[in-house]
């Protein structure tokens, strides 16, 4: 090949042709450096026939500069990248970029230098250095990363290196990971579990595409069962990718993985240090990383020898990415498995309706684990009708729930209270003039956080200290907190049961692997009586002495009423209920609600999952909603309100008129201001027969918008705000 077509990481440039200099060996997928004007850019050699561009005569081509020392992106991955770009109406280069997770790693292995404390105790020390030394305890990273961790300048740290307080450590990027052993500690499986595991093992050995829905009740041992599939892949020398919905769950997973396979898996997520990222990426492309556990972004990595993909808690909506390339990692995982020719397991106790439908229609093979492991029973669920059983004034827990909490405390058992709202109170207002604290950048109230004494926006991160007086009428001490968040519930528990040890579990308190580890150890060691938490504690955890779950407000998720509100409520409540009674003692669940007759609440109370899915399926069919019809959203935004509105109207004015497509809007988005941008939405509801992507691409291709306008396409949207 003496001519190469490059995919470069700039959506505006698209594809560019270059001359391949004599002696440079490249093939499709090779990662190369090329000149662009006075600059050098990185690109991926692409299959020329699949990537049209302007024809440039040979004589005008500039030569490639260098082929980077990494294996070419394999063909199945290139096909996946093309598929995702096409399906999600995203630039090819934005998708491809996700495969090259670490740009430093492209330059090869070798060594890098990190720093750590020497353990030297200086006789005299500045307060700044002393604070840095506290913060850096146990850390090892580059100067820049350490500066971030310790919140000091790099200069301070360089000074500390000079003073012998920090020392350099040479890190070998390509040092191998310890090997996982398929047979390290294999469990004895129950009959059901064994049957399921056999299916997975056979599928891994067959090395063919096979999608599975592992549909097992909470505590049935889904993890143990898919671990047998992992073991089979390890025995075959193939790699495994396990996707988890959020990093908070990985700590738990790591411990179980280590117990089963003897070593930790390789982690991939956005907060890895630069050297960890580089090492993991290189091990993934070389095949040395046997099992990779990660959040969404692990999905597009160039695995050398993939043998199995697992998506755990596959119903979780956080698999849907809502910025940049708006893809659904669960769905792309299945497509990747198809291109790679390997099995994929979607595991959940509360599968998404779409997944259920695919299993019902035989596209996915459904594997059912109907019972909890070890004879544990599913918990008893009952409803607390808040209209009749009212909490005391200014409180949120009904008398019956309070009694049950006290009974657990006396018996030395644990309880869990679930409320999916961070902070102390979702709204703060002035008693005197009615002023409400609102975010200046978003259509949202500021949420009071008592732990940090701040009012915070949960959308853009805007924060202000809680003022002493109303900013509007200047009356002092006049602010009232309206409604509960988890902090307020934790306070209430402390008032009701002064002796109880309460743990608050939210992304504010459990924001690092260490803290998650401490929490799990404390809960397992029975150092916690009551856990109060957000959706973070609804899934994955296994605390045998936890026998009571209280859902503080089951109606919360139904507010706003988008397409999936009922499904999400069902999943959250069923998942958190599933934390109760997993050991020998039976579990009990109390659901507080004002709508006990709502279909979803009724189904939860009766434990009638089938009825819920059946009713929900019919509702979706009637609405032409997924999986029966298709949805896509167009979101138009600008910092200038008029500019956003005009662009949205222009798009609406040219809406295609097609028989199988219904277009709604434009209308101001429910969140009409977000991070300082004004937003308008259009919603497309199409029959399955419609070629939505093609329609959208051609439609939006008609316009040239001003610089400040952003137009985003969201295929199969989960968020409607
Ligand atoms: N065959 C087995 N041998 C020993 N322990 C098992 C076995 N199967 C399951 N367990 C244990 O039972 C508990 C529940 O299993 P696991 O967490 O895998 O269930 P799960 O189906 O993933 O639950 P959830 O969906 O609620 O997270 C775990 O502590 C697990 O180690
Ligand atoms: Zn905001």
From TrEMBL:
<feature type="binding site">
    <location>
        <position position="433"/>
    </location>
    <ligand>
        <name>Zn(2+) 1</name>
    </ligand>
</feature>
<feature type="binding site">
    <location>
        <position position="460"/>
    </location>
    <ligand>
        <name>Zn(2+) 2</name>
    </ligand>
</feature>
<protein>
    <recommendedName>
        <fullName>Replication restart protein PriA</fullName>
        <ecNumber>5.6.2.4</ecNumber>
    </recommendedName>
</protein>
<feature type="domain" description="Helicase ATP-binding">
    <location>
        <begin position="203"/>
        <end position="369"/>
    </location>
</feature>
<dbReference type="InterPro" id="IPR027417">
    <property type="entry name" value="P-loop_NTPase"/>
</dbReference>
<keyword id="KW-0238">DNA-binding</keyword>
<dbReference type="InterPro" id="IPR011545">
    <property type="entry name" value="DEAD/DEAH_box_helicase_dom"/>
</dbReference>
<dbReference type="InterPro" id="IPR005259">
    <property type="entry name" value="PriA"/>
</dbReference>
<keyword id="KW-0413">Isomerase</keyword>
<keyword id="KW-0067">ATP-binding</keyword>
<comment type="function">
    <text>Initiates the restart of stalled replication forks, which reloads the replicative helicase on sites other than the origin of replication. Recognizes and binds to abandoned replication forks and remodels them to uncover a helicase loading site. Promotes assembly of the primosome at these replication forks.</text>
</comment>
<comment type="similarity">
    <text>Belongs to the helicase family. PriA subfamily.</text>
</comment>
<feature type="binding site">
    <location>
        <position position="473"/>
    </location>
    <ligand>
        <name>Zn(2+) 1</name>
    </ligand>
</feature>
<keyword id="KW-0235">DNA replication</keyword>
<feature type="binding site">
    <location>
        <position position="430"/>
    </location>
    <ligand>
        <name>Zn(2+) 1</name>
    </ligand>
</feature>
<keyword id="KW-0347">Helicase</keyword>
<dbReference type="InterPro" id="IPR040498">
    <property type="entry name" value="PriA_CRR"/>
</dbReference>
<dbReference type="InterPro" id="IPR042115">
    <property type="entry name" value="PriA_3primeBD_sf"/>
</dbReference>
<keyword id="KW-0378">Hydrolase</keyword>
<keyword id="KW-0639">Primosome</keyword>
<dbReference type="Pfam" id="PF00270">
    <property type="entry name" value="DEAD"/>
</dbReference>
<dbReference type="InterPro" id="IPR001650">
    <property type="entry name" value="Helicase_C-like"/>
</dbReference>
<dbReference type="InterPro" id="IPR014001">
    <property type="entry name" value="Helicase_ATP-bd"/>
</dbReference>
<feature type="binding site">
    <location>
        <position position="457"/>
    </location>
    <ligand>
        <name>Zn(2+) 2</name>
    </ligand>
</feature>
<feature type="binding site">
    <location>
        <position position="442"/>
    </location>
    <ligand>
        <name>Zn(2+) 2</name>
    </ligand>
</feature>
<dbReference type="InterPro" id="IPR041236">
    <property type="entry name" value="PriA_C"/>
</dbReference>
<dbReference type="GO" id="GO:0016787">
    <property type="term" value="F:hydrolase activity"/>
</dbReference>
<feature type="binding site">
    <location>
        <position position="439"/>
    </location>
    <ligand>
        <name>Zn(2+) 2</name>
    </ligand>
</feature>
<dbReference type="InterPro" id="IPR041222">
    <property type="entry name" value="PriA_3primeBD"/>
</dbReference>
<keyword id="KW-0547">Nucleotide-binding</keyword>
<comment type="subunit">
    <text>Component of the replication restart primosome.</text>
</comment>
<dbReference type="Pfam" id="PF17764">
    <property type="entry name" value="PriA_3primeBD"/>
</dbReference>
<dbReference type="Pfam" id="PF18074">
    <property type="entry name" value="PriA_C"/>
</dbReference>
<keyword id="KW-0479">Metal-binding</keyword>
<feature type="binding site">
    <location>
        <position position="470"/>
    </location>
    <ligand>
        <name>Zn(2+) 1</name>
    </ligand>
</feature>
<keyword id="KW-0862">Zinc</keyword>
<dbReference type="Pfam" id="PF18319">
    <property type="entry name" value="Zn_ribbon_PriA"/>
</dbReference>
């Amino acid at each position: 090949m003496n001519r190469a077509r490059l995919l470069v990481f700039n959506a505006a440039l698209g594809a560019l042709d270059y001359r391949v200099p004599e002696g440079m060996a490249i093939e499709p997928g090779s990662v190369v450096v090329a000149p662009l004007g006075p600059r050098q850019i990185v690109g991926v050699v692409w299959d020329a026939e699949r990537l049209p561009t302007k024809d440039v005569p040979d004589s005008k081509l500039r030569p490639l500069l260098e082929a980077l020392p990494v294996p070419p992106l394999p063909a199945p991955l290139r096909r996946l990248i093309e598929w995702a770009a096409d399906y999600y109406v995203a630039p090819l280069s934005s998708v491809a970029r996700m495969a090259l997770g670490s740009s430093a790693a492209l330059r090869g292995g070798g060594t890098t230098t990190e720093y750590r404390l020497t353990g030297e105790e200086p006789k005299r020390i500045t307060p700044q250095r002393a604070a840095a030394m506290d913060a850096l305890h146990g850390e090892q990273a580059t100067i820049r990363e350490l500066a971030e961790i310790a919140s000091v300048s790099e200069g301070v740290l360089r000074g500390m290196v000079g003073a012998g307080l920090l020392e350099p450590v040479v890190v070998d990027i390509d040092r191998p990971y310890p090997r996982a052993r398929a047979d390290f500690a294999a469990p004895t499986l129950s009959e059901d579990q064994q049957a399921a595991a056999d299916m997975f093992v056979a599928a891994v050995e067959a090395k063919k595409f096979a999608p599975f829905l592992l549909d097992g009740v909470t505590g049935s041992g889904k993890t143990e069962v898919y671990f047998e599939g992992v073991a089979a892949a390890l025995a075959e020398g193939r790699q495994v990718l396990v996707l988890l919905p959020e990093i908070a769950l990985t700590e738990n997973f790591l411990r179980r993985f280590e117990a089963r396979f003897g070593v930790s898996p390789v982690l991939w997520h956005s907060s890895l240090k630069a050297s960890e990222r580089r090492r993991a990426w290189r091990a993934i492309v070389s095949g040395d990383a046997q099992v990779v556990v990660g959040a969404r972004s692990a999905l597009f990595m160039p695995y050398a020898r993939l043998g199995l993909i697992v998506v755990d808690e596959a119903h979780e909506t956080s698999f849907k990415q809502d910025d940049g390339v708006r893809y659904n990692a669960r769905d792309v995982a299945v497509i990747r498995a198809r291109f790679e020719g390997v099995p994929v397991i979607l595991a959940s106790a509360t599968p998404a309706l779409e997944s259920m439908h695919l299993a019902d229609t035989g596209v996915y093979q459904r594997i059912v684990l109907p019972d909890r492991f070890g004879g544990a029973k599913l918990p008893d669920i009952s409803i607390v009708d808040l209209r009749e059983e009212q909490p005391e004034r200014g409180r949120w827990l009904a008398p019956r729930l309070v009694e049950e909490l006290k009974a657990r405390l006396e018996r030395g058992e644990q309880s869990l209270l679930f409320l999916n709202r961070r902070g102390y109170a979702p709204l703060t207002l002035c008693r005197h003039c009615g002023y409400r604290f609102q975010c200046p950048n978003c259509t949202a109230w500021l949420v009071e956080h008592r732990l940090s004494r701040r009012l915070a926006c949960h959308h853009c991160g805007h924060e202000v200290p809680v003022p002493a007086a109303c900013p509007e009428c200047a009356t002092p001490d006049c602010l009232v907190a309206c409604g509960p968040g988890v902090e307020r519930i934790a306070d209430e528990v402390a008032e009701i049961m002064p002796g109880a040890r309460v743990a608050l579990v939210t992304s504010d308190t459990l924001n690092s692997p260490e803290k998650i580890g401490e929490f799990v150890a404390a809960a397992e060691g029975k150092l916690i009586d009551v856990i109060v938490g957000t959706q973070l504690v609804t899934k994955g955890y296994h605390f045998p002495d936890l026998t009571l779950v209280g859902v503080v407000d089951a109606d919360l998720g139904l507010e706003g009423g988008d397409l999936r509100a009922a499904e999400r409520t069902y999943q959250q409540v069923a998942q958190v209920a599933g934390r109760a009674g997993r050991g020998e003692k039976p579990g009990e669940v109390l659901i507080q609600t004002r709508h006990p007759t709502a279909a979803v609440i009724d189904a939860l109370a009766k434990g009638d999952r089938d009825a819920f899915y059946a009713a929900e399926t019919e509702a979706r069919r009637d609405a032409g909603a997924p999986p029966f019809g298709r949805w896509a959203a167009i979101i138009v935004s600008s910092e200038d309100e008029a500019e956003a509105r005009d662009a949205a109207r222009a798009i609406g004015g040219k809406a295609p008129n097609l028989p199988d497509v219904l277009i709604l809007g434009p209308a101001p988005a429910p969140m009409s201001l977000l991070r300082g941008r004004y937003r308008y939405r259009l919603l497309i509801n199409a029959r399955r027969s419609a070629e939505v992507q093609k329609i959208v691409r051609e439609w939006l291709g008609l316009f040239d918008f001003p610089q400040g306008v952003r137009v985003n396409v969201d295929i199969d949207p989960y968020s409607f705000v």
